[in-house]
């Protein structure tokens, strides 16, 4: 009986561990000493496809006050209350290094943030590619109260991406361009991005949303505002359909990886 219970628990956990980033935007944050602010965006590392920062808005309707909180301080979310627990006080968050979202976020700023929060080994220190010595720049989503700048691909030297920025990026398949990125699906136990959702809205009458493993993305291009995907248009169209009202469970994952012939 105990073995059966443990098995059931694992099955339940496999269902609830996969979360849509689109649905998490707007969640409240609950600091150690109270609740204030909303989740505005997620920043992830394209090299490892792991969430690195949560962008939190502590401002009001009339004035934004957006800050980045390192993923290290994310506690256990309350999914029923749609609340993120953050292991910091509101004062800690508000006093973090100033950041203008009208300007790129540099590695220098990331270092200041790591120093402020006492993070001894920031994520980029464990990535050997980060020791090139070059100044790394991250271009966030559309700036608040600022016109969008023209971004050249050669000016971008970073693996950090904004969910709000790539949401809506077009899909460049191996034989055609169509549809766009609609969502990213994470494992809430380690904030690893596992899947992305493609809205095939310009394939009428076959228009639908399909879910794909993140490994099939070859590159994200800011200048072209697209994701290059190592699949044909037909293969993408025939991928498992995504229903936001249904959990991404073990059965669907088996279908995905049987289909792609990759990890299980």
UniProtKB/TrEMBL annotation:
It comes from Draconibacterium orientale. Residues 20-74, 168-234 form the PRC-barrel domain. One of its GO terms (cellular component) is plasma membrane light-harvesting complex. It holds the Pfam family PRC. GO terms for biological process: photosynthesis, light reaction. Gene3D superfamilies: Photosynthetic Reaction Center, subunit H, domain 2. It comes from the Bacteria. This is PRC-barrel domain-containing protein. InterPro entries: Bac_photo_RC_H_C, PRC-brl_dom, PRC_barrel-like_sf.
